[in-house]
Amino acid sequence: PELLAKITSFCTNRNISKDFIEDLSAGLNHAEIGGLIAEKWNFPQGLVESIKYHHEPSECDPEHADVVFTVYLANAICGLERQEIVFEQLDQQVLEDFGISTEQQLEVIKNKLSAAFERETARIN
């Protein structure tokens, strides 16, 4: 835990992506490791691809682009909410595929999803 905290602090202070450090230190990133585990456990190929390419959706097999793009966009929206990324960093092909051309359009989607999540959480609790 201490090492992870130091790495996180280092990345934050120097504006370096944690994914970059992860790739350098391990040789594989969490998406690649997750994809390998999903393959070993015989998950459906669409699920394997969505795990493996949730940061690099343009690398996926076009046959599975729908599910990979959906997982990528959901992950990206979470990153936007946590202010870890900005709109300009998002994969343009994915945005195009969902008919999103402006930051304002994505903001409306993000707000609707957040409100729905809050309603569902309140309903469960």
- Helix % is 55-70%
Indicate the radius of gyration in whole angstroms: 16 Å
Q: List the helices and strands in order.
A: HHHHHHH
Q: Would you tell me the structural class of the helices and strands?
A: mainly alpha
What general form does the structure show? globular
List low-pLDDT spans. none
What is the helix tally? Answer: 7
Q: Output mean pLDDT.
A: 88
Main pleated sheet: none
The count of β-strands is: 0
Hey, roughly how much beta strand do the residues contain? Answer: under 5%
Question: Your description of this structure?
Answer:
The structure is a single chain. With 125 residues, this protein is mainly α. Helix content is 69%, strand content 0%. It has 7 helices and no strands. It has helices spanning 2-14, 18-26, 30-40, 45-52, 65-81, 92-97, 103-124. α3 runs antiparallel to α4 (45-52) and α4 (45-52) runs parallel beside α5 (65-81). The longest helix is centred in the last third of the chain and has 22 residues, at 103-124. It starts with a helix and ends with a helix.
